[in-house]
Design a protein that fits this description.
The structure holds 2 protein chains of 2 kinds. By secondary structure, chain A is α+β, with helices and mostly antiparallel strands. Chain A is built from 4 helices and 3 strands. Chain B is mainly α. Chain B has 6 helices and 2 strands, in the order ααββαααα. Chain B is elongated. Helix content of chain B is about 45%, strand content about 5%. In chain B, a hairpin with a 2-residue loop joins strand 1 and strand 2.
Chain lengths: ~120, ~100
């Protein structure tokens, strides 16, 4: 994954990243109890200065996603970050896998190229 | 940027689609987010149901499901067949029957 990786494998709540990154990490951990969590600040790739914290990508591996179609998985993630999405978070790339899916294919999609514009 | 990417995916798969520019209508832009409970754009709807955003469409593309859920651009041959069968008697003409004034009703 390109961009500064702000998480260690295993979803430990470290102090890496800016305040929004930490909030995202904390909320996703609390809501989804992920077995693996990566939080990526993509803002520099969208023209923001370093530390802008406007565009994020998250990789969430959680048993909570089992049996849920993609739409519902993404909704769970959005729900956990409702306040942030209504505020500073302009774009959020989401990859939501079950632990089994992650084990059989531990590859996260790369961040999409920025072709300009805001997602909201 | 994500919107253009999604357009590329749909085009690549020959999906017939219409689009709405949410920049053209702020009411729709904000209203649709709460209506569908989805916070970002682009949003893809198929047969009136939200499929999701770019991430989901990319996964559907990778799994092959995109081709099954999205109707494709109709092939010309199919369109022609459908037109010639539109009525029991179909006349393909230059102009319309109303204009000729020859009593064709």
């Amino acid at each position: 994954m390109r961009g500064p990786l702000l998480a260690a494998a295993g979803g430990a709540m470290g102090g890496a990243g800016g305040p929004l990154a930490r909030t995202i990490r904390a909320k996703l951990t609390a809501a989804l109890q992920p077995t693996h969590l990566e939080v990526r600040d993509d803002s520099p790739r969208h023209g923001g200065p370093p530390g802008a914290e406007t565009h994020f990508g998250v990789l969430v591996v959680s048993g909570r996603f089992a049996g849920l179609p993609l739409l519902q998985r993404h909704r769970l993630v959005h729900e956990a970050l409702r306040a942030e999405l209504a505020g500073p978070l302009h774009a959020l790339q989401v990859t939501a896998r079950t632990p089994q899916q992650w084990q059989s294919d531990p590859r996260a999609p790369p961040a999409p190229p920025c072709l300009g514009g805001s997602k909201r | 940027g994500f919107s253009r990417h999604l357009v590329e995916i749909l085009s690549r798969h020959g999906v017939a689609f219409s689009s709405f520019d949410v920049f053209s209508d702020e009411e729709v832009r904000q209203g649709l987010k709460s209506f569908s409970n989805w916070p970002t754009y682009p949003q893809l709807y198929v047969k009136g149901e939200l499929v999701g955003g770019l991430d989901i469409v990319k996964e559907l593309e990778a799994s092959g499901e995109l081709d099954t859920i999205c109707p494709k651009v109709q092939k010309l041959e199919d369109r022609l067949k459908s037109l010639i069968n539109k009525a029991p008697v179909m006349l393909f003409m230059k102009g319309s029957k109303q204009v000729t004034g020859m009593g064709l009703t």
